[in-house]
């Protein structure tokens, strides 16, 4: 009986090693096609179908410290295209999410495990992201599932607005609608100053690009930073960022993000030590297992 109790205590000591995602630094990715990623997606002239060329530059390669929440709400190693199972009705390619995460880890190596939560859907306008809409509620739900691991939402990356350049009225209302969206989002995530890194449009579906860009570049909400994508190379469709453009954008967003977070976060990730504490856990795990086996064996042989 006593031995069983001892086993239980030992097992519970070793348990935390299973909760390896506890320290995740969560990043929500939302918006429309250029956030979902269309880098390397072109119209195949033979088949007339949009296809992804499959080219993954080094900045977008998988990294054991970058995970992704799938459509089925499981954590997996992140790889391109990040939105393949989210923006399911479109052909997805390279987006800014992985180059962003790789750039953050290059600049702050002890940042911890990054958990990307892709939520972007191509062709969506700002009204479709309003609180109460299915896109909005799904994003909140995915964020809440992501938080169950014990991590913290560090930022929202938002690239959207191309669809709001078609009508003058929508373009004029963009500032008001996006401010409301950010405010609702922060309130529902219970993080009133959550860093938001938004992108000023490089392209649009209609003629009123400059009105939307002005709204994006002049937001007066605190802790909302804007990265300007204008001038980055576009695919032949004139709407979507190429793969090299997405790599550049991801790096620009990483710089904006690292400027937006208090330096204490960057340095406390030292003291919280995301990777080093795993080591003692691992060691104890490997020490405890043989010990347990040995204990069991001793009990068994003692009785029989
Ligand atoms: C591909 O290009 C052809 C010819 O320009 C066009 O007719 C077709 O609609 C395009 N397909 C897609 C999926 O964009
Ligand atoms: C994909 O298309 C189906 C059928 O039209 C639709 O029900 C579904 O909502 C679409 N999903 C997304 C993510 O666009
Ligand atoms: C946004 O898109 C939806 C779906 O395409 C459409 O029904 C709606 O009219 C659009 N809203 C605005 C304000 O453009």
Automatic annotation (TrEMBL):
Keywords: Hydrolase, Membrane, Signal, Transmembrane, Transmembrane helix. The chain crosses the membrane at residues 282-302. It comes from the Eukaryota. InterPro entries: Carb_Esterase_6, SASA, SGNH_hydro_sf. One of its GO terms (molecular function) is hydrolase activity. Residues 24-259 form the Sialate O-acetylesterase domain. Residues 1-19 form the signal peptide. This is Sialate O-acetylesterase domain-containing protein. The lineage of its organism: Eukaryota, Viridiplantae, Streptophyta, Embryophyta, Tracheophyta.
């Amino acid at each position: 009986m006593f031995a069983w109790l001892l086993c239980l205590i030992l097992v519970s000591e070793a348990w935390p090693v299973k909760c390896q995602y506890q320290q995740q630094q969560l990043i929500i990715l939302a918006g429309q096609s250029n956030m979902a990623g269309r880098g390397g997606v072109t119209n195949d002239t033979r088949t007339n179908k949009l296809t992804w060329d499959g080219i993954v530059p080094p900045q977008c390669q998988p990294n054991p410290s970058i995970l992704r929440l799938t459509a089925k709400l499981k954590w997996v190693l992140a790889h391109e295209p990040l939105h393949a199972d989210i923006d399911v009705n479109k052909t997805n390619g390279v987006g800014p999410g992985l180059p962003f995460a790789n750039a953050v880890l290059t600049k702050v190596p002890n940042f911890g495990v990054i958990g990307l939560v892709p939520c972007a859907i191509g062709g969506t306008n700002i009204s479709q992201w309003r609180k109460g809409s299915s896109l909005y509620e799904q994003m909140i739900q995915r964020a809440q599932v992501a938080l169950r691991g014990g991590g913290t939402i560090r930022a929202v990356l938002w690239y959207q607005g191309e669809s709001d350049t078609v009508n003058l009225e929508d373009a004029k209302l963009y500032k008001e609608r996006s401010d409301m969206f950010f405010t609702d989002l922060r309130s529902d995530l219970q993080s009133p100053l959550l860093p938001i890194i938004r992108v000023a449009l490089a392209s649009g579906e209609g003629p009123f690009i400059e009105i939307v860009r002005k709204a994006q570049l002049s937001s007066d909400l605190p802790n909302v930073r804007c990265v300007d994508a204008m001038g980055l190379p576009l695919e032949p469709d004139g709407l979507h960022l190429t793969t090299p453009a997405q790599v550049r954008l991801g790096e620009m967003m990483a710089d904006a993000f690292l400027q937006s977070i208090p330096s204490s976060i960057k340095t406390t990730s030292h003291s919280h030590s995301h990777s080093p504490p795993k080591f003692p856990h691992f060691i104890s795990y490997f020490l405890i297992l043989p010990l347990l086996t040995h204990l069991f064996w001793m009990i068994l042989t003692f009785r029989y």
